[in-house]
Amino acid sequence: MNTTHPVFCAIVPPHVLDKLAQADDPALAAPARRTLETDAARRTHRHLTVAAGIRTARDPAGDKAPEGPRRSIHDCERRTVLPGRKVRGEGDEPGTDATVNRAYGGLGATLELLLKAYGRNSLDGAGLALTASVHYDERYGNAFWDGDQMVFGDGDGEIFLDFTLPVDVIGHELAHGLTQYTANLSYFGQPGALNESVSDVFGSLVKQYTLDHTAEQADWLIGAGLLAPRVSGVALRSMKAPGTAYDDDLLGKDPQPATMDDFVRTGRDNGGVHINSGIPNHAFYLFATRLGGRAWERAGQIWFDVLTGGELRADAKFADFARLTVAAARARYGEGAEHEAVVKAWSQVGVPTA
């Protein structure tokens, strides 16, 4: 029986699109409004599907998990019917569409990290085949995991560029699938912010793994390269310095807090899931950089252990997650540097671990 509760999870927060939708320039406002409307329709569709008890589409792999990745890239041809026309399958040679090739490569990088670093065969641990659709809708300014597959927009070219450009965006959205098949964190309030943070963490780790960057070399930005040149900003979020990713007349100022002192209470964005995720994001950054080396190894391993360990409840708060990371560090590495570093990291952001 499928006990997961898939949700619609998009990389660009609603508050960013809301701000753009109010722009005086129709060339900026119209794509943002269309993106908000499309997202609302997809979100409603997912909610009704879950409420009706319809299982998410799964590829029947059987008892024996297939070996190797299984990727399928589809072209929506700027329409909204999913998945669209299949344009590249597993093992096919690259074509002339760079967006298709980037999506294929990003899915592969994420699967490789999960398998080589953590011994996990795809998102569900059983070789789940991955579907991604590109060129979704007209000037669509988002990318999302809808419970079944990945979807990428081309952006409007004014604010957002092609959403396959940053590999961490691909990793972020696929990590929502990983969470769906493991801890299944609720998508509201602190559990929802943890859901978003876990995706930022593993999205960043996919990028670092792809570039072979150490924690010190990494930029710790989510979505670097996504914003068009006219935007005053470097990315959608910063794990190193939450609240500093952008400060733009059109987008507004990055609202993410770095510590619990500035925790944002709001009814919007499912209780601020894209905003308050800055707090556990910053804790992971502090933890990983204190340890040094490759962040996907020790720091990422502990986060992965908590996500897949079976003790993380769907309604977990920040303190619940923090306590489990401390326990996971102790269980895997003993009372050493890892344990000390994770306790200190959570303390610095104001989340108790005792």
List the total number of helices. Answer: 10
Chain-averaged pLDDT: 94
Biggest sheet character: 6 strands, mixed
Q: Which sequence of SSEs, written as H and E, runs from N to C? A: EHHEEHEEEHHEEEEHHHHH
Unreliable segments (pLDDT under 50, ≥5 consecutive)? none
Inertia-based shape: globular
How many strand units? 10
Estimated structural class:
alpha+beta
Characterize the quaternary organization of these chains.
Answer: single chain
Q: Which percent range describes the beta-strand content?
A: 5-15%
Question: How much helix, percentage-wise, in residues?
Answer: 40-55%
First-to-last CA distance: 36 Å
Widest sheet, order of strands: 1-5-6-4-2-3
Radius of gyration: 19 Å
Explain how this protein is built.
- With 354 residues, this protein is α+β, with helices and mostly antiparallel strands.
- Helices cover 42% and strands 9% of the residues.
- It contains 10 helices and 10 strands.
- The strands form 3 sheets. It has a 6-stranded mixed β-sheet with strand order 1-5-6-4-2-3, with helices on one face.
- β5 and β6 form a beta hairpin.
- α1 runs antiparallel to α2, α7 packs antiparallel against α10 and α9 runs antiparallel to α10.
- It is globular, with a radius of gyration of 19 Å.
- The two termini are 36 Å apart.
- The model has no long low-confidence stretch (mean pLDDT 94).
Features:
354 residues; alpha+beta; two-stranded antiparallel sheet; 10 helices; 9% strand; globular
In a few lines, what is going on in this structure?
With about 350 residues, the chain is of the alpha+beta class.
